[in-house]
Design brief:
heterodimer, A: 460 residues, alpha/beta, 7-stranded mixed β-sheet, 22% helix, 29% strand, globular, B: mainly alpha
Amino acid sequence: MPPSAVRRDVGTLWQSLSAAGSLTRRWLADPDTRVELGALARGSSLGTRLGRLRRRSVLIKTEEQLPAALALIELDGIARRIVLCTPDVASEHLRAVLANASIDAVVGEEQASALGKELFLTGDHLVACDPDRAASEDTEWVLLTSGTTGAPKLVRHDLATLRGPMVAGGALGEGAVWSTFYDMRRYGGLQIFLRAMLGGGSMVLSSAREPVGDFLARAGAHGVTHISGTPSHWRRALMSAATRKMAPNYVRLSGEIADQPILDHLRAAFPDADIAHAYASTEAGVAFDVRDGLAGFPASYLGRRGDVEMRVVDGSLRIKSGRNATTYLGDDPPFFDEDGFVDTGDMVELRAGRYYFVGRRGGIINIGGQKVYPEEIEAVINRHPAVRMSLVKARKNPITGAVVAADVVVKSEPPDAAVLKSEILGICRETLARHKVPAVIRFVPAIAVGAAGKLARSGA
Amino acid sequence: MSIRSDIAALFAEVAQEQKKTLAPLSDDLGLLETGLDSLCFAIIVARLEDQLGVDPFSADEEIDFPVTVGDFIKLYEHASVGRAA
């Protein structure tokens, strides 16, 4: 197929990142190594076999992010379809991914040979060669959703839907050094990777095997200027002294509700940085950024703003935009409503001209017939200055069916746990209806954060 | 502290938190006459589970739902003995 057959007008990732700024001073780094982007002009992580991946449906399945990032740059415009696989996908689910995406080639390490597809070995070093980077395909990018249970869903995007937020979002900062706690193979991490690549910057990739303090120190040593993560990532980061080794200009939160306390803590930790929280989901794409330092978003964001249209139906936020994914691959039902909006399942409440996220539709706790979202209670508990983070869950109860139980991580050992407990309960009673006030509070050393950087919530 | 005094203290604590007026407790006082409502009892049961490590309501054996304060205390005393045995 000649290059003219490519329908999209955005160019491939390689073309776009080359056009965004000089390649010689830009790089991708992980804990082990650093790859100059310019070296991709005269070498390939896939060596001379790159051409054999043209028009194929390729699963990228590597342990570390750097080889996956290199393969993504090299295969956009070459492969017919790229499926970005995170390391945590269980092998029984991988079979379904291979089938639903009609995978006929795998880019990965030795152990990926067990998948039974033609394996193209890759790694974090480039083989000198003269790679043919001419585009022949409108490559489809498939991301896996990060559901904690069941099979991951395959969400179809392409470079145009993924870069939509950047086209609209203004300055990306040439020469910026981006980083994120996210895995770049998930939607939130991929957004940061694309901002780095398309905005003329570099990127510090995280690694699942690296302690958070080491990652922060490394990002600081690389001179990180733009960094993103979930509120849970940030609450954990703020417990590490290594946070002080960074001086970013831009701090971004996404993936979970950004409550006022975490925004305030980040403001205090990075007084000179722009602090923004973004709303995005793998299916809906990025819908908006909030830059005023306040939780929630102005009601004026509803309706049409640029290429994004939002409405609230039955309490949940619905989004329609060119950044929406196209469909799921496989048998999962469509995620669009009859008007073409993605129903996010994220519930919002209007208070004084501003919408606040209150929780997930499926996460409601029912206390004797009265309902509450765990996130709403966590936001109140987190207001206590001694609290680092909290997780609210339902505990079965013979009288009301369920009561509210809260696990709380404190910043430092309280002088008197009973006093702290009653202070936290006091704040809750001042603010929340009585059924929403935790019946029990436990102080715990840590709260589990899942692979996608969100609090691990079990079904209520 | 005995289970009896633990429970009495919890009744008082929850009544105060929930701004309820607690009636003077006695074994034959009906639970519905204590001044506490169902949310209060839900909280008391949850806290007793943490304090005593038992939840008699979730035990395998069938239980008679307590009607009086005395029934309620006996239920926990029985459950604690069962656990210790």
